[in-house]
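Re: folding output
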Amino acid sequence: MNYIKLWFRSIAQVMFQGNAWCGLFFLAGIFWGAYNSGTPAVAWGAVVGTTVSIITGYLLGYPRDEATQGLWGFNGVLVGCGLMTFLGSTPLGWLAVIICSAMTTWVRTGLNRLGAPLGVTSFTFPFVMSTWIFLAAARALGGLDVMALSHPMLPASGVHLLSAHGDALPSLLEFCEWTLRGVSQVFLIDSWITGVLFLIGLLIACPAAALWAVIGSAGGAALALLFGAPTEAIAHGMYGFSPVLTAIALGAAFYRRTLWRTIIWALVGVVGTVFVQASMNVLLSPVGLPSLTAPFCIATWLFMLPTIKSNQQTN
């Protein structure tokens, strides 16, 4: 088994690609964005998270064909990016990355077994669930340095903060940058250059996935603008990353119908994801937790449950 390919495929599988070259461009984008923003720990967190989750799969004796496809590591890479975004780069913070990354491997197996009778898989929810647990615990554990989590607030205050700002519409160039940032935020990176590197990786692995990534991010940003979401959040890709994953999942990865049905279903899925994103921003405000990729998971489950007849997917 080529362990280098396996490792890079794990990173690529965040966007449902089993291509090592795609994973290489994803990692390059992560390192560029992390170092450019002065947070190199995020990039190295991705490396540690991927490695630990893969090793955990081997130690637990899970099916090797899943490892070959990169399915053990994709939640781990997101854990590494996520915890190093919100927690300080301390020895205990790194220990939390190791524990949480390992946890995603068996959580994914358990959630997939729960979803098998319904014909759905866990997607990135093992990352979401595990990271929520550790970020919430960090509020009570003084050894974990909380860096970038929002302050808990009542939903009423959250609704006020989510009101429209009345800013001028962006130029075409600005909107293109927002779209690229939406792609980069899949890995919690805020960089349009990272977005470009991610799209190059997707083009190598699956041009349709690259197209749907752009459609998802641009559609999410446009709809958020239309309904008056905060311009600053849209500009930094916060309404684009979950629609990116939904668009790829429904448009190029899992939903298999006629071309026009696939297009329509994926576009409707993007619309639904934006509303799930906004609602989760409010629902999670009392505990001060980020939504991460939960809006994508929830929206895609809602759109796939009526259509999947058997559990034939792997991710």
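--- second protein (sequence, then structure) ---
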Amino acid sequence: MHWENYTSLPEKFRNQRVFDGCGIAGFINIDGKKDDGSKIKDMLTILNERENGLGAGFAAYGIYPQYKDYYALHLLFDDETSKLDVIDSLSNIGLVVQSEPIPTKTPSNVDNPPIVWRVFFDPKEKRSISQDEQIVQLVMEINEKFKGAFVMSSGKNMGVFKGNGWSQEIAEYYKIKDYKAFMWLAHSRFPTNTPGWWGGAHPFNLLNTSVVHNGEITSYGTNMRYLESFGYKCTLRTDTEVIAYLFDLLSRKHKIPVEIASLALAPPLFEEIDKLKDIYQIALKNIRATYRSAMLNGPFSVVVGFSDPIPTLIGLTDRKKLRPLVVGISEDENTVYMSSEEASFKRLMLEPNNKFSFKEIWHPKSGTAVIASLETGLIRDGLEKPFEKTKLTIKGV
């Protein structure tokens, strides 16, 4: 896909780079109740001072129950030729269960949109690798080798909707209010140092992992080379891509619990590690040594959603908290919210149709993950020390 085709804003806006910008938001309903896109839209669009019209997007989990056993490929195409090339290729290597346009606003409210398409797919071919790994390889191949094509998302029972425009415009273009999901993520503005194109908007996704990011990953080169040693191909022209792939590598391929994966990506400073019990020091230093090339440096705050095996929402900032993250839990303790600003929560409290209040709103510690999952609820509130209030066990403790 050629990003130049979809940079439709005036030159002065294309070159605008607001380094402390980006609005991020997300929530998970612990009981699995599905909310339509109105709430996440309100949470994101209130952060309009954090965006510059260069891009926005949403990730929704639980939206395709009728196709929950198939991979939902959300795709962008330059033209009909690129679309037919990809769909023909999919038909040759697996079962295309359903192939259709993603519903959008007609007439379009955004300039020069690409073809937005979805395919529900089953890689029926039996191979020595898992179906998930087959899909990962497929996504890498399409993004790298198929001219005019890009995979927005590739998970089951979920999808990413993103593109060039203001958050309000993208929400209307994809008819976000028509989808119902138990977990939502959202992002406004655009990657800091990369060109404005549809595929480069957030969220970034691989299988059931989606990431929205505010900040800049200065370790991108190291992270990229590390990922490429495991077969990942970073072709999307943005630092955020590595975060999604790293979460997939650690949690899916290496089967590391999310608490440990979060520590690997944003480990405590050595001066903080030295203050802990000896057994914790050994564990953390081993994590740092093993995954030193996966560590994220630079100012960042991220909200991550994944659903393998349990739908989970994660919030994480850099170790100095150079980018903001705010967390809230509803009065009934059923919904955990995350955002780059408390304004997202206040917007919900002012909505006449949302008659609820927050039990608590707090700012997690720097470099400390907030984790909430379906049924289990709030696992970590981001105020703990490493390994505190966790069910994980370390040999010798």
